[in-house]
Design goal:
By secondary structure, this protein is mostly helical. It has two domains: 151 residues, HPT domain (Four Helix Bundle (Hemerythrin (Met), subunit A)), CATH 1.20.120; 207 residues, Orthogonal Bundle (Hypothetical protein af1432). 61% of the residues lie in helices and 2% in strands. It has a two-stranded antiparallel ribbon. 33% of the residues are buried.
């Protein structure tokens, strides 16, 4: 987290600007509510643009630089909206409201303590996404805005009532990938029932993998990542039970046998071209950033991002759930998080461990 401190601003000046910012925030909130009912209202578009423009100007007077570029990106979107080149939708409304809520909270904290903490990388990722919106790619607007919203507040995807525990899958397309995903999900259930240590593992890993991905701006295709989470350890179900449940150390021959499970798992996707990206995640999820993994000894830049996410969730799940080995001890979540961080740069990707940390912080905060 980065920290910003206010320097050399008279308290009276700050208080006056804070009052104006609160009024502008309330005006934006009112405009957004009205636009839900009148999405084509040009006057509301203009009013919203002017309010955000003024907020950005006020923050410039306060020299609160971290938020100025962020508001500038929102202003650019509202300029497109005002000019009829961006459609007002509920997702855009959610993004604007959430963004302004965060700005408002930062300013209040700044007024109370003289400083505020913020996630610099997260803001930059949202800014980069919003910068992609232009008059020439209208068909991509909704997906970009949705991704920006989930990047700004990834936990939103986990709070949808009865569906909170279900992985979010994108709408169907002509290849019917959702049918394949349902099939993969059905396949893994009997595999997991083969060992009492595996039950529920794929669903646990999928939820965490998707959340980590969303904290990194959904850099990995969610359908491909979902497929890889279901399929990556399928081959383990065809290993001898005496090897799977062995409480002592494995022999070198048994280790080699276990290593073959990545090929067995990836083979399932061999004749399904749509899932080639998922297949590569499956093949590479036991590779390590320092090149000491298997099966090919790939290094960090050679490993797919999806495989790096899988490596983290696989390792974390192994640390926090019971296994056959007598040398294995379930670790408390905080201890497991610390262990994951210790492995960053050797076994695991530092970039994706940082996203993992954000995801775990959100989960631990909600469970506190």
């Amino acid at each position: 987290m980065a920290r910003f401190k206010v320097i050399d601003i008279e308290p009276e000046v700050f208080a006056d600007l804070l009052d104006e910012l609160q009024e502008l925030y309330e005006r934006c909130e009112s405009n957004l509510i009205e636009l839900e009912h009148k999405p084509e209202d040009v006057e509301l578009h203009r009013s919203l643009f002017r309010a955000v423009h003024t907020i950005k100007g006020d923050l410039g007077l306060l020299s609160i630089s971290p938020l100025i570029q962020f508001l500038g990106c929102l202003e650019d979107c509202l300029s497109l909206l005002r000019d009829g080149k961006l459609k007002f939708t509920s997702v855009l409304s959610d993004l604007l409201l959430l963004s302004l809520e965060k700005v408002n909270a930062f300013i209040k904290e700044c007024n109370q303590t003289g400083e505020f903490q913020y996630d610099e990388q997260q803001l930059h990722r949202v800014e980069a996404l919003l910068a992609k919106i232009s008059a020439k790619n209208a068909e991509q607007h909704e997906q970009i805005i949705r991704t920006a919203l989930l990047t700004l507040e990834p936990s939103l995807v986990l709070t949808d009532g009865a569906k909170a525990d279900e992985p979010q899958i994108t709408p169907p397309d002509q290849n019917r990938p959702e049918d394949d995903l349902a099939f993969f999900r059905q396949l893994i259930e009997p595999v997991e029932s083969r060992s009492r240590y595996w039950r529920g593992r794929s669903d646990r890993q999928l939820k965490l993998a998707l959340l980590i991905n969303r904290y990194a701006g959904s850099a990995v295709d969610e359908k491909q990542l979902t497929a890889a989470c279901y399929v990556h350890d399928f081959g383990m179900g065809f290993m001898p039970l005496e090897v799977l449940h062995k409480s002592g150390s494995l022999s070198s021959k048994e280790v080699q046998l276990i290593h073959t499970h990545v090929y067995c798992s990836a083979k399932l996707l061999e004749n399904m071209p749509y899932w080639h990206e998922a297949k590569m995640m499956v093949l590479q999820h036991h590779e390590k950033c320092d090149g000491s993994g298997y099966p090919l000894g790939l290094k960090d830049h050679e490993i797919s991002d999806g495989a790096k996410i899988l490596a983290i969730v696989d390792t974390f799940d192994a640390m926090t759930h019971e296994r056959a080995s007598v040398s294995h001890m379930r670790r408390p979540y905080q201890r497991a998080v610390a262990e994951i961080n210790r492995l960053a740069g050797t076994q695991l990707s530092p970039y994706w461990v940082a996203a993992f940390n954000q995801a775990m912080q959100a989960l631990l905060n909600r469970s506190a």
